[in-house]
Amino acid sequence: MERLIEVTNLTKTYGKQRGILNVSFDITEGEVFGFLGPNGAGKTTTIRTLMGFLKPDSGQAQIGGFDCWKQSTAVKRLVGYLPGEFSFDPALTGAQILTYLGNLRGGVDQAYVRQLCERLDLDLTKRFRAYSRGNKQKIGLVQAFMHKPRLLILDEPTGGLDPLNQQEFYHMIAEVHADGRTVFLSSHILPEVEHTCSRIGIIREGQLIQMDMVSKLKDIKQNDVLIRFASPASPAWFKDIPGVLTVEPEPDGTELHLTVQGELQSIIQVAAEHQAIHFATQEPNLEEIFLRFYQPAKQVKTEVAANA
User: Fold this and answer.
1) Which residue range or ranges hold the ABC transporter domain (predicted)?
2) How far is CA 119 from CA 7, 116, 166, 192, in A?
3) Cα separation of 43 and 200, whole Å?
4) More confident residue, 204 or 178
């Protein structure tokens, strides 16, 4: 597949304040890519650099073969963009805003615009100042989708939406994907990434720390294991097994709670040797995996040592 977005060693700082540092990734045509990180991690800086709003200190970003800074006008023709906070002239109605932005695009399919508004239950007669946060977000979504762009760049797209509209948004993303178009979705809401994305990148403190398929990332997850024994159990039984990160006894002394990275075969074998009567595992969701990427390594070591 053709690469649509190519980012190489992209760096942007704000004086002494952190921005992004040596960020590199590729996104192929037709992919739905999730860009994850907490507030302040560098998601919006990356997006603004892709959109040509910020000049990088070093490195390069390209969309469709166009340099995002030097050829930003050409880039914007390919993109439907939703900023983190969509704002517009407060005196204009929703209909006027969409007409104006549609004209800037050289005209859009008005039937499709009406369809998007109906799906999101958006009243276009109100002035922008009268809209709630959720309705402002709907205007932002419609203007991003309405010209059926080759690439959608969406910064926290479901902010302010109620659950029904969130589900409708997921359907809209699925339709874009089925149409062979590309989505770059920045978010800190992990369930929406699980719903919509096939591959993700995790950014922390301005640096990209993980890139993988959502399914692959869940394959390398840490399992939570609860083992119950007929008599009091010792954490020492498990502490030297490779992959065991934590072993915590439950209050009654007959149960152990383990956090395990990788295969469980050795855990099952040791549990059987000590007459385990109950063995349960829980697969963490993407949110739990994400939090573990932000857990300092020394904290994991301390937990193991404390329970040894």
Assistant:
1) 5-230
2) 34, 5, 11, 18
3) 13
4) 178
Comparing CA positions, the residue from 259, 230, 231 lying closest to residue 247 is: 259
Q: Provide the 10 A C-beta neighbour count for residue 14.
A: 10
For 95, the domain range is: 3-216
Task: List all residues 6 or more positions away from 239 whose beta carbon is below 8 Å from its beta carbon.
Answer: 247, 304, 307, 308
Q: What is the mean pLDDT of the chain?
A: 89
228 and 204 in one domain? no
Same domain, 173 and 294: no
Whether 203 and 288 map to the same domain: the answer is no
* CA dihedral of 87, 88, 92, 98, whole degrees rounded to 10: -90
Main-chain phi, psi angles of 106, to 5 degrees: 85, 15
Distance CA 69, CA 67 (A): 6
CB atoms within 10 A of CB 259: 19
* Judgement on whether residues 38 and 161 belong to the same structural domain of the protein: yes
Single-letter code of the amino acid located at 178: A
**Do residue 198 and residue 234 come from a single domain?**
no
Question: Which run of H or E residues covers position 200?
Answer: strand 199-204
Q: What pTM was estimated for this model as a whole?
A: 0.78
At residue 130 the predicted structure's pLDDT band, cuts being 50, 70 and 90, is very high
CA distance 165 to 220: 32
Q: Are residues 180 and 31 in the same domain?
A: yes
Contacts of the segment 275-278: beta carbons below 8 A, 24+ positions apart? 275/229, 275/230, 275/231, 276/227, 276/228, 276/229, 277/228, 277/229, 277/230, 278/226, 278/227, 278/228
Mean pLDDT along residues 94-121: 95
Residue 87 tokens read as 């704002």
Tokens found for residue 12: 């942007």
- Report, as an integer, the average pLDDT of 188-196: 81
Q: Which of 29, 57, 28, 34 is nearest to 45 (CA)?
A: 57
From 169, 186, 216, the end of a domain falls on: 216
Could you give the CA distance from residue 104 to residue 158 in angstroms, rounded to a whole number? 25
